[in-house]
Amino acid sequence: xxxxxxxxxxxxxxxxxxxxxxxxxxxxxxxxxxxxxxxxxxxxxxxxxxxxxxxxxxxxxxxxxxxxxxxxxxxxxxxxxxxxxxxxxxxxxxxxxxxxxxxxxxxxxxxxxxxxxxxxxxxxxxxxxxxxxxxxxxxxxxxxxxxxxxxxxxxxxxxxxxxxxxxxxxxxxxxxxxxxxxxxxxxxxxxxxxxxxxxxxxxxxxxxxxxxxxxxxxxxxxxxxxxxxxxxxxxxxxxxxxxxxxxxxxxxx
Length: 253
Ligand code: SIN
Prior knowledge:
Elements lengths: L4 E4 L6 E4 L8 H14 L1 E4 L6 H9 L12 E2 L2 E8 L24 E8 L7 E5 H7 L2 H7 L3 E6 L2 E6 L1 E3 L6 E3 L6 E4 L4 H14 L6 E4 L6 E5 L3 E5 L9 E6 L7
Parallel strand pairs: 2-3
Antiparallel strand pairs: 1-2, 3-14, 4-5, 5-16, 6-14, 6-16, 7-13, 7-15, 8-9, 8-12, 10-11
The structure holds succinic acid (SIN).
């Protein structure tokens, strides 16, 4: 059994796990990683450089893998999403989002590995959506509790509760985002816009976030059920390539 040494990365969420290998994890080591993920929501593992088969195997420890409905995978591995720099205008990840929340059963866990990193920039940020909900005034929380919202993209549409309960921790988290959430169910886009924008802005306040500056071979895993994330596109036309293995989630409740 490996020793899991946890260094917190911000006051709100995220932890770095040092001197720990993700290659071919023993069951008890996987259980330690999963518990740390439920607690810290985002885990950073430096210097892993997992071969693609090991990256896939790591994702599968959490459950069946998700295949992206629109974007291409890596060569003969459709379940490994290939994220590369196609220019700022075509970038769709520089927005606070939870992965593919337009699906009925949106991804639970994402496991991202850095393959090529620009000489500067290209960081990723995450924001704690348990705390985002806790910070709202009790009256607004009460108002949101029975609401659902429509999430839409890639010709897919799904209706999810605005406040979801995490199946592992039992904690409630805000579940709207700037990438996919279109409107509250039963309200128009125009009626929904001010409150949705307010919730995403509140949910991404700087002191709810952590930020990772990548090196090639780093692995970061996060829990889409209680965080939003944002990929900062500040590296112009320089090369940035990432591989993401994403775990099929459950219907949010
Ligand atoms: C994503 O999963 O949204 C991409 C994150 C990144 O490229 O840093």
